[in-house]
Input
Amino acid sequence: MRFHLRFIGRVAVLLLALIPGVAATTKEQLRQAQPPIIRSWGTEAGLPQNTVTAIVQSHDGYMWLGTRDGLARFDGVRFNTFGLESGLPSVDISSLCEDQQGVLWIGTYGAGLCCLRQGRIKTLADPSRLPGSDTITCLQADSAGQLWVGTAAGLRFCRDGKMLDDPLFTNLLHSPIHSLLRSRDGKTMWIASVIHGLMAATEGRLEPCPGPADHEKIVGRSLFEDHLGRLWVSIGNGMVLCRENGQWRIFNEDDGLPFAYITSITEGADGSIWAGSLDDGLYRFDGKRFQVLRRADKLSADDIRSLYSDHEGNLWVGTRTGGLNRLSERNLVVVAGAQGLTNDFTRSVAETADGTLWVGTVGGSVYRGGLAGFQPFRPDPVSALIYYYANVDPVLATPDGALWWGGNGALMHWQDNHLAGCFTNEAWIQNVLVTALQNDRRGGIWIGTSGGQLVHLQNHHFTEYPKQLARATITSLAVQTDGAVWIGSVAGGVKRIREGSDAVLSITNGLASFSIRTLHLDEPGTLWIGTAGGGLSCWRNGKVTSFGASQGLTVSTVSQIVEDDHGFLWLGGNSGIFKVSKRDLLDCAEGKLSFVHSRSFGINDGMLADECSGGFCPAGLKTKSGLICISTVRGLVFINPNEQRGEPAPPKVLLEEMLVNGQPQTLASAGAARQPARLVIAPGSHDIELHYTAIEFSAPEKIGFRYQLAGIDSGWTEALARRTVYYQRIPPGEFTFHVQACNAGGVWSDQDTALEITARPFFWETSWFHATSILAISGGSAGILWWLLRRRYRQRLARLQTLNVIERERLRISKDMHDHVGGVLTQVSQLSDMGLNETEDRALVKNRFERIGNRARAAVQSLDEIVWATNPKNDNLASFAEYVSRFSDEFFEYTSIRCWQEVPATFPALPLRADVRHNVFLAVREAFNNALKHSKGTEVWLRIKLDEGRVTLEVEDNGCGFDPARPAAGGNGLENMRARLAEDGGQTVMSSVPGKGTRVRLIFPVGA
Amino acid sequence: MNKSKVNKAIQVALVEDDPNLRANLTTMLNGSSGFQCQAAYPDGLAALRGIPANRPDVVLMDINLPGMLGTDCVRELKELTPNLPVLMLTVYEDSEQIFKSLMSGATGYLLKRTSKEKLLEAIREVNAGGAPMSRQIARRVVQYFQKVNELPTDTRNASVVVNLTDREQEVLAALAKGYAYKEIADLLQISFETVRTHLRTIYEKLHVHSRTEAVLKYLGR
Output
């Protein structure tokens, strides 16, 4: 039986092929039906300028574009531009070439050659300084790692980063070069020179290559060798030469070429030759003739400057005025306004036995036609019934050759070229639209209306079903082989009835949306349900399974479901057409798969709109010739399911840019090795911003990304099309950032792009404590300080007269350093050791940190004092007064004692000897200490007065005082104070009344 | 992405050449609720480029910057964004430098070893329109204006020389003695806010003088 059906099918195809206007399924015929898909980018999309003089794809997949206003790198979505600020010697780019090491060579008009290597642009000086030698015309890298540089002056070479002449090519040193081409076998370099014509350099030999008769000297504009080894040379207006097996063939205007010279030649993925003309469009050689593509065919401009065929089979076209174009193979054909569907919001489509397609439209009634084009179908007497006929949603072709269409309050029946019926009087059809039609196996027709009415027509008799079956518009009907009917409506889910039975099966459980758009019943009896907003569901063995984004199906509204012969469902939705394997869906329903892969088709594939129409039945069909036909809001879309390539492999992700706190970072290691890149971040709080991309040019916007920062994120974050990620406040530690891409079909790359991020901790951020580092830092600063002090100290030596004083000063400084700074640093190191050993008790660790902090602050303060004491600039009264006053502020700051100061705003800058001021200062400190530790007072007064060359400094408190006759515990310090000051000719007067406070008065001379 | 949640935090810009200190201060600010280190600049030129555009609430600036000194940077910055409060950071209390930067338009200074709490408090204060002044600085200000008073009259007439009002002098004197703002307000029977206004005005007057060539010349700065 199956064989029989197939046989009939084959015969039908053969027959159909003979009928004009019927779909032909070969790729070439589809291509002829419509030109390739063209997409354009200009300055508005981020291209630096609309003249694209050179195009090259680098090994990592980026397209590089040379313009007259800079260089651009393109990943399909974003243009990254390079200008003078990036190091280019000129923004006027003439040519691009990537060598085997991955270095991008950039030729400019008038500023010589430069190269982009590991993100840096370097200009190469040309020592020859010949006029024109800095205008680069073309670049080719040879197999020996040498760069051939064509210039307006002549042929030059670049080897090991140096511009050179080659003695072998002295002839060509002064002949402008138009083009260079490395042969496919790598042995020959073709050189198009202006003076000497076309030359071939093969293994150290340079030979002229004469052209055919009348064109012996070939002044080639552009050169290309195709995969068959044919050499193509454009030689002037309307002339292209092709050399095959040593024989030249001339193409000219008779072969379809324009009277404009060809600026660039390349080969498409299918082996066809493409030639871009100076100002008259793009030409494709199909083996016989050159066929033109112009602006009328959606090319952005007719002035072609550069062509490039990328790794994916796209053709890139750079123009003079229209920026960049991408031509990609058409996987589908759209039949719309241009093909006669003047109302291109197509609804239902039906195919009659003769292969004619019938399309219902709202407003434009029915169109009749096929792939080749459509015409409105308005024969008499139908045209007279235009009120009923204008708005047609469903069109149904029945096996008896009849055509049924539902209109505005009417159902029409067309058979044998005449209107067999027009039903307008029935009660159920008043004021409603017929929205769904379906035939059953017994010659009956099921009818659904916008009023939610279900009607069965059999033998000219209408049977109405209770309205409760569907409370709103019936959108879809499906009839089982046993005659049971499934009804889908915009509210209330799916219901099934049987004739002669009152039992109704209602499906709502498990549906993600109760608004049904379409139903498809397959041969084993699985019901596929397309919903509005809830994706696809299937009903099988009494169980509903829904498929949504988490199962990999990104289409949320499914309006049409068509099944092909290969086990795939084609889903028409609001966001395009999706192809998905039924097997996968069923496996997913059974839990064997967690994810289904789909392949999507949309605007990128040449559709005029992504949205497929829906809400009526029948919706979408498989033509008798095997094409999938989906009605969209902009025309009918035909896809040949037999011709579909597999999905492109998911692209690998490239990390483009890394910013830490907004500052661009360079990678710690990004060698050729396959190790992940590393980013090392200095201690501190850091926000990280990473830019990544994946290069795939056929549907770049449909690439999805996911990422995770292992160590912080618990799983993948789905980034969809977003190509940037921010992490705020990265804590110290080692993390690995992983990012992956998926293609339009939702297939994730198994290649993972990783970036190792090391956020260095501050020493206090480590759980174990870097005792050594803190000591090193302390030691280092102490060392520097010591050096500084020593320098100052030396200066002071010269000024100090008495050896005794020098000696004392030296001793004092070293003692201070030892006692204060050294003591404190010792404590710091001890505390850090203790912190190091303390791993459990966080509170204790915290306490240690606090103490380290306090001790370190104290150390800085001590250093401050030493610095102040040793700085000769401070050897005056004003400075001293200020220092003491400041010291007292700091001293009492966090104590319970309030310090008042009675210090005049100004003091004359009287000189004060360093040892004197130091001794006085120590005495003051001692007095402060006593006040703080022993007086139990609440207030302290600091008074400084100058009186006839003598300074009186008073420290008074309101504490308990002491009996001068019985000095208290701090007495020893006061005695020292007294002795020190006496040496400098000063005196210390201490007075105290028990209970009334203490007053220390220091009197010393100044200006001496 | 989550920047909106910290909208109410005080946006602090940091100008500090020592990368370690810079990182520390940034961490400290970002780790304190209500504060956000908006940007950290390694030198004066970078700060002058970035700060006017980014409009922080408060600037912390190291006095000893390489290249352009912090004091010069403040002056330039005040020309561009006159109302932006700048706090100077210094390792040692070099009163000369500190006063110079106050003349240039800074609204206070902080020692780098200052505890975190005090630092944050000072930032909060200047952000709220306060003008913190230590008593040493108060004394310096008095001293300075005494010098200004001694200017030859022609110089004074020729330039915009502003003197302190009696009230301002009273505020400074009380401050120098050791009274807190609140006590000064009680003492002088004025509001707390008025004390702050006086201090702001005093800073502003200093700043005006720093722009007056003749005054600077006379004072030998």
Notes: Chain A touches chain B at residues 661-662, 682-685, 726, 728-729, 762, 853, 856-857, 860-861, 864, 867-868, 879, 882-883, 885-886, 889, 898-903, 905-906 (CB under 8 Å).
